[in-house]
UniProtKB/TrEMBL annotation:
Name under which the protein is recorded: Glucose-6-phosphate isomerase
Similarity remark: Belongs to the GPI family.
Function: Catalyzes the reversible isomerization of glucose-6-phosphate to fructose-6-phosphate.
Isomerase keyword on record: yes
Cellular component, GO annotation: cytosol
EC number, as in UniProt: 5.3.1.9
Predominant cellular place of this UniProt entry's protein: cytoplasm
Pfam families xref list: PGI (PF00342)
Gene from which the chain derives: pgi
Amino acid sequence: MATQLAPVGERKAFKALQTHFQQIGGKHLRELFAEDPARGDRFTAETGGIFLDYSKNRITDETLKLLLQLAEESGLREKIEAMFRGDKINITENRAVLHVALRAPKGESIVLDGEDVVPAVHEVLDKMSAFADRVRSGEWKGHTGKKIRNVVNIGIGGSDLGPVMAYEALKFYSQRDLTFRFVSNVDGTDFAEAVEDLDAEETLFLVASKTFTTLETMTNAHTARDWALAKLGDEKAVAKHFVAISTNAKEVAKFGIDTANMFGFWDWVGGRYSMDSAIGLSTMLAIGPDNFRAMLAGFHEMDVHFRTTPFEKNLPVLLGLLTIWYTDFFDAQTVAILPYEQYLKRFPAYLQQLTMESNGKHVTLDGELVDTLTGPIYWGEPGTNGQHSFYQLIHQGTRLIPCDFIGFYKTLNPLGRHHDMLMANVFAQAEALAFGKTAEQVKAEGTPDWLVPHRVFEGNRPSNTILADKLTPAVLGKLVALYEHAVLTQGAIWNIDSFDQWGVELGKVLAQKIIGELESETEPKLAHDTSTTNLIQRYRKNK
Ligand SMILES: O=P(O)(O)OC[C@H]1O[C@](O)(CO)[C@@H](O)[C@@H]1O
């Protein structure tokens, strides 16, 4: 199915950007601000209380104009509409991409294959809410009649990273007499440590898996069942202590969970786009149905903004285009996500799957090799901790690392001067990265000549600063949707499938084969390369 899109490098706007890059790529942010002092007022955009200052990027009005032209020429508008309309834009899996339907308000309609999907979304939400209310109030009892005090989410990838991130991000709003744990790794230590101090009689397991066939999750779920039944004794206990979140009712029933205790979603929700589906049940149990719905409303607000706002004022589009600029013209390899909000400590890890599983692709939708770099590496840590760890390299290393700073006007935990100090660091870091410190400035401070080069800050390191009032469920929804749509923006330009993940398959298949070889009672016939064969043999000998 040809997309009719020329390779990125052959598009008119891209070629114009290449010429433009020759002219301004080497310009320093000091010069850009000197020539255009008002850029700090102009290169900003805001929606629903999310403010983006992108003036400290190595761009001019012309850069922006050409990037916006590239978006138009690449069919971004049509791509956005196609997603919202429910077209099967996940071409390699022949699926619609409708995470936006998960937060569509009641009464809105999104028709897929002749059926409006929004009522089903609200049915599941209502079922989740009723269940959450029962658990939170203590009405839902375990097999021996005790209240549930512990919730353990078992899932991996999108069935873990979103729930963990949202739980941590919204802990301030959580019901504190409920303990939450998240088990993802097939490493038994993850499960063992998670339940070490828990009482099975008071523990509810949420088995979260879109497919309900994922090796790690099913292994952990079976171990959890054995652990629970060892204490509770009776198969019937499963009904009170296990619920499933999945699209696969057949496998859920096979596992022994009553499908009445299953919260469904659909194949048009990608794993990494699912934290606002039933996969978010742990989030709802923690913060309650009203807060969860407030989060969905936040997501929806950003969806409407993305769909309706002209590109030059559209936050996800701007964020996406800036990443294209650094990736494809400056050859930047990474993007650093630097939240100055302790509650967002898992946000960078969450964004890693969202961005890298989505845009880590090497062929276009037409199956041709892409002719530019695609998805960069996303990484990061909360400020100010990162400052005392890896910022040295961002400031003075040899790589260009565009940074996203995320900060809030208000803290949820006001403590003396802490918040002003925290936020002073956001502004100082972005300023230092952009403007640096020249040799003249260093010398003028009386630094001996030999030390001057070491103390020079080249500057010209670009960053975005994203500010919001305070971290609420709605604001979290807006932030996640902002990055989701920035991912689509990038994918549209690279003309790749941002919604499949074939790259995770090969390792999974090989591991299945090797498991048998590691566990075989008799010496297995190994048909690997010499390195893999030796490693397997060494493991077998020493395990
Ligand atoms: O929810 P499931 O089906 O267990 O899948 C978990 C994760 O595995 C992947 O398919 C691949 O790692 C992710 O896309 C997904 O989020």
